[in-house]
TrEMBL record:
It comes from Bradyrhizobium neotropicale. InterPro entries: Transposase_IS66_Orf2. Pfam families: TnpB_IS66. The lineage of its organism: Bacteria, Pseudomonadati, Pseudomonadota, Alphaproteobacteria, Hyphomicrobiales. This is Transposase.
């Protein structure tokens, strides 16, 4: 699990993201598409088209980190909106990443 300090905001990038993209490309997406600062300390979660892989981008004040999680079965539940970002709590993110909030 990612050790998230209190006060960190978590954003889900709605829609689908090309999962071949790396840290710099995802940071550019945060800056240009979501109109947010990728170095401000917030977490950004991206999901691939198939729905079984997410990538999490986070700048902790010292450097940028990129985390990935792929489900063996099922898909991550994702907002229906096709553009923008949705804010969720750290508890909701933990629930989602534990696989409890996934579709069969």
């Amino acid at each position: 699990m990612i050790p998230i300090p209190s006060g960190v905001r978590v954003w889900i990038a709605t829609g689908h993201t090309d999962m071949r993209r790396g840290m710099q490309s995802l940071a550019l997406t945060v800056q240009e598409s979501l109109k947010r600062d990728p170095h401000a300390g917030d977490l950004y979660i991206f999901r691939g088209r198939r729905g079984d892989l997410v990538k999490i981008l986070w700048h902790d004040g010292l450097g940028m980190s990129l985390y990935a999680k792929r489900l063996d079965r099922g898909k991550f539940i994702w907002p229906a909106a096709s553009a923008g970002a949705v804010s969720i709590s750290a508890a909701q993110m933990a629930y989602m990443l534990e696989g409890i909030g996934r579709c069969p």
